Automatic annotation (TrEMBL):
SUPFAM superfamilies in alphabetical order: Pectin lyase-like
Chain segments annotated as transmembrane: none
Name of this chain's protein: Right handed beta helix domain-containing protein
Extent of the signal sequence: 1-23
Gene3D superfamilies: Single-stranded right-handed beta-helix, Pectin lyase-like
Entry keywords, A to Z: Signal
Pfam families reported in the protein's UniProt record: Beta_helix
InterPro entries to which the protein is assigned, alphabetical: Beta_helix (IPR039448), PbH1 (IPR006626), Pectin_lyas_fold (IPR012334), Pectin_lyase_fold/virulence (IPR011050)
Domain (Right handed beta helix) ranges: 87-218
Superkingdom per UniProt: Bacteria
Coiled-coil annotated residue ranges, if any: none
Length: 314
């Protein structure tokens, strides 16, 4: 009995030390190799991109696990270049970490669909017809951090958001608890730097820097952040250059656009012309049914004030 117990413990211990038996580092230097690696990767694997240009549309549908995510990594000189469509599409592919690479040239940069716990870290996304990074189809607990997004919305339709969370036109897309942290978004982003759609809940937007030079004004793209979801925390962000306001909330669907807390954000509205330019334009405030909190720690330079009339500051 003692021998059996010892052998059993030894097997478990060896597994803990070694990790997944199949985990591997996959070195990639061509587009064909990258497509193959994205298709065949298993939990714990690392796909390592050499510097160079990878032309095409790159997609995966395989998932890692909570203890063994799949990692796609390279330097900013490892460049995914699409001629249209999505540069990188994580379609139902949960537990991925995408680090360091550049994505450019497509309709959209990085698309996350129906996936959980995807981390986008230190990437560069630019030169796109539409939005830069999109969490969609109830992609939950995603994170984008330490990244640069600029030069989006080049088709001129006002659909060039830097980071887009959820979907317009209903509340079925529950892309909840997405974190947008310490990114630089802009200039020349054709839509809002960040658009948080109705149906999404509980995300955090913190430590980002926004440059709104290049806002088109199409489809009401006239602020750095537009919050249409519920119960977001938006804090410690800095913005400059806007055509209208800094931060906005809207009710596109009944009961949505509520519960957001804004604190310690710094808005420079210098250059925003005309009347009614505010750091915070809250269009749907109701103290009992749709409260929005604007903390006194927020500051504004230029414009017509911290918030539109009737909105409490506390």
């Amino acid at each position: 009995m003692k021998t059996a117990l010892f052998l059993s413990f030894g097997v478990v211990a060896a597994g803990l030390v070694a990790g997944p038996a199949h985990a591997a580092t996959i070195d990639v230097s061509t587009a064909a190799q990258l497509k193959s690696a994205l298709t065949s990767a298993k939990a714990g694997d690392t796909i390592k991109l050499a510097d160079g240009t990878y032309t095409g549309n790159f997609k995966t549908t395989v998932s890692g696990s909570s203890s063994s995510p799949i990692t796609l990594t390279g330097s900013a000189k490892a460049i995914l270049t699409a001629g249209g469509g999505y540069g990188l599409h994580l379609n139902g592919a949960s537990y991925w970490q995408v680090k360091g690479i550049t994505v450019t040239g497509g309709q959209k940069g990085i698309m996350i669909d129906s996936a959980t716990r995807v981390v986008i870290d230190g990437v560069t996304v630019h030169g796109l017809d539409m939005e830069g990074v999109h969490f969609r189809k109830s992609s939950t607990y995603g994170t984008i951090r330490n990244s640069k997004i600029y030069d989006t919305g080049n088709d001129g339709r006002g659909m060039g958001e830097g980071v887009y969370v959820g979907s317009a036109g209903g509340t079925s897309d529950k892309s909840d608890n997405v974190q947008i942290l310490d990114n630089t978004i802009g200039p020349d982003v054709g839509g809002e730097a960040i658009d948080l759609k109705e149906g999404t809940t509980g995300g955090r937007v913190a430590g980002n820097s926004f440059d709104g030079r290049g806002l088109t004004g199409a489809n009401y793209d006239d602020s750095w952040i537009d919050v249409k979801g519920n119960n977001y925390v938006i804090e410690n962000n800095t913005g400059k250059n806007t055509t209208n306001n800094g931060f906005e909330t809207h009710t596109q669907q009944s009961g949505w656009g509520c519960g957001t807390v804004f604190r310690n954000n710094r808005s420079d509205l210098t250059g925003a012309t005309g009347s009614g330019r505010y750091a915070f334009n809250i269009t749907n405030y109701n103290a009992s049914s749709c409260k929005v909190t604007i903390d006194r720690s927020n500051t504004v330079t230029g414009g017509n004030g911290l918030a539109n009339p009737g909105i409490p500051i506390g």
